[in-house]
Write a structure and sequence with these properties.
Blueprint lengths: L7 E5 L1 E5 L4 E5 L2 H9 L3 E5 L6 H8 L3 E4 L9 H17 L3 E4 L1 H9 L5 E2 L4 E9 L4 H4 L2 E7 L2 E2 L9 E6 L5 E6 L4 E4 L11 H12 L1
Parallel strand pairs: 1-4, 1-5, 5-6, 6-13
Antiparallel strand pairs: 2-3, 7-10, 8-9, 8-11, 11-12, 12-13
Length: 209
């Protein structure tokens, strides 16, 4: 893929049912666009109804794929199918991938891990402990936002991943694959209350390519 002044980030989209127009729409928060544009990256949106998501992703020549948050896995079949295909295609092309909240859950499930109900993690903030190399980006401790009711416990992490962040109860908040350019976080880098280290983490994955 050609070098560019501004790297491209392919973003998956959530699915919304609109009431006024009685139709289904893809959507993404303006926060994502502001965040990525603000750190010098070009956001490119990937629809959920493509006939060939794999070919679309390849044609974009992105520098990073981000599987975004929103929608529980299983609640939006079109999104599930699109994101799984995007993840498979990225892995085949050695394209770096970062999963955000639902995105991390999907990565864990795709590799054989299991999701669990997590209490008191919706619309709040909490501390996390960083390890396995992520101290470089965040320091050993950070504070993050939280908007999820499902998560990954240590006993349910897929094989091939290392734990890079945990909450005070020991639930997994960050993961990184031991050999692939693949990671996930349970907080939202695009939302208020995200740690500054997210920018360095994202840049490190873009530099990997």
């Amino acid at each position: 893929m050609n070098a560019r002044a501004r790297p491209r980030v392919a973003l998956s989209l959530r699915i919304l049912e609109t009431q006024n127009y009685q139709e289904t729409r893809d959507a993404i928060s303006h926060d994502w666009i502001r965040f990525l544009d603000g750190i010098g990256l070009i956001p490119i949106l990937v629809p959920n109804t493509l006939f060939d998501p794999s070919g679309f992703l390849v044609s974009l020549e992105p520098d990073l794929l981000m599987l975004t948050g929103g929608d529980d896995i299983g609640s939006t079949p079109d999104r599930d199918a699109t994101e799984i295909k995007l993840l498979e295609t990225a892995l085949e092309a050695n394209l770096p991938v970062i999963g955000i909240c639902r995105g991390m859950q999907l990565i864990n499930a795709k590799f054989g891990g299991v999701l669990s109900t997590i209490e008191n993690h919706i619309a709040c903030a909490h501390g996390v402990h960083l390890g396995n190399g992520w101290e470089t980006f965040y320091g050993s401790e950070a504070r993050v936002n939280s908007f999820h009711g499902l998560g990954v416990k240590k006993t349910n992490l897929a094989e091939g991943f290392k734990i890079t962040a945990t909450d005070p109860e020991g639930n997994i908040e960050g993961i990184s694959h031991t050999s692939l350019p693949l990671a996930g976080v349970m907080w939202h880098p695009e939302r208020q209350g995200a740690p500054e280290g997210d920018r360095e983490l994202i840049q490190s994955f873009i530099s990997h390519k």
